Every structure is written in C-alpha cells, then in structure tokens.
Amino acid sequence: MPRFAYEITKHPAEEFDQLVYFCTDQGECGVRELPPDQLSALGEIMNQRGAQGWELIQVLFGKDGVVIFWKRSL
Q1: Taking the C-alpha atoms of 8, 45, 72 and 31 in order, what is their torsion angle to the nearest 10 degrees?
Q2: CB atoms within 10 A of CB 42
Q3: Are 1 and 39 contacting, i.e. CB atoms less than 8 angstroms apart?
Q4: Alpha-carbon gap, residue 35 to 1, rounded angstroms
C-alpha cells in the first residue's frame, strides 16, 4: 500500500506581486478570467515544490492569501 506525506503551505497576499484574484462579498475567491502572465507567481511556487517531489492537491484562495495542500510518496 502506498504511503504519503502531506504538507500545507500558506502564502500571504503580499507574496504575489503579479497574482490577482477576486473575492466576492460572500467570501468566495478565485482566479477567473485572468491573463496567464498574472499567474506566474503561483506557477513558480508549484514548480519549486514539484521539483522537490510534492504533488499539488488543492489551492484555496482567500482575501488574505493562498493556502496550498501538497502530498508526496514516502
């Protein structure tokens, strides 16, 4: 049976110079209808972690930043 390690990383909104995401009044946030170049900061985090063997599970956007869930095989 495969075994995995899990990690959760938090990235404050200030960490993203180019990433813009939108939050509704109800608190729902996302990166809808954005030019691809504005996602470069998030892509860089994903590529760095991927090079270390981590697989992206989920990304949650909030008004204060981004929380990313990762896993990798042990």
Answers
A1: 70
A2: 20
A3: no
A4: 41
